[in-house]
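note to self — DONT lose this again. spent like an hour looking for the file last time. sequence + predicted structure for the chain T wanted, 351 res
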Amino acid sequence: MAQETHSDTLTAAALTLKDIARQAGVSLATVDRVLHNRPGVRPDTVRRVREAIERNSFQPHVAAAELARGRARRFAFVMPSGPNPFMQQIQAYLGEMSAWLAARRLNVEMIATDVFDPSVLAASLEALSGDYDGVAVVALDHPGVRAAINDLVDAGTKVVTLVSDVPSSRRHHYVGIDNIAAGRTAGALVGRLVGGRAGKVAIVAGSQGLRDHAERIFGFNQVMASEFPDLSVLPVLEGRDEDERSEQLLARLFGRHADIVGLYNVGAGTQGVANALSKAARETVVFVGHDVTALTRRLLLQGVMDAAISQNPGHEARAAVRVLLALARGEPILREQEKIRIDIVMRDNLP
């Protein structure tokens, strides 16, 4: 199958003291005096230099250290193609890091591909061999993808799995939440919010081949089976995180089961899930999903969605870059700093 990729470079060349001097309208020597707090510079000039430094998030000592290391480094982020709001948030946060990345002589590129198709995802990873120092990938847990990750590692590329893990591969690190715990949390919320009613619970996932989705479902089912015996969990629907597909699958399920009282949306496709609930007039169905986006915020405020299991996309973007940089430098990973928390967000505590 043909590879489906798209590349978009987010960073420009690394900033230098000359760039700061040009923006402030002063000489390089003047910038040096300001940086070292030497006398002989007018207050207004000091202000302009410091504003230029702050505006660009410029860190001269970091930039000098990276320059001494030699060539710039290239990282690739292999992300799902299609309109997934949470993944778009991660990409947006990476874009906001451009000055930080430039100061460290890092170029980060986005590679959009079909992460639900193992052959397409594996081909996308194979195409990166030899071109990048590090790769962060939203990964499908499949033998072909695992082999592609291992080949990258064997070729000297640092590989981090992002959001969805492939623990049996030789990837160097995983950046994301504990998805079994996230699923258990969703199960506890659905079970308690149903309020003692008996009935069925529907699950909509992107794909059970995605490790994060499979682990969330596992955790959810654990809690359902052990704590809520009056609730029967229906077979998982796989909507590939697509709105239209998720809506169609759920609409058919509502047509077959009049006694659905709870719904767990494991991944994206949230608008489709909400549409199906509305068209079937299932206002009393408890709806728990994932991530705080513009859409889930609106659904929470409207009372369509009861709770969202949230993870911080900005933290995940920063952690993935920091981990790849530490691996490339041969430095230790600050595991506590890079640990991604699970948050429960409801209408009353929306951030």
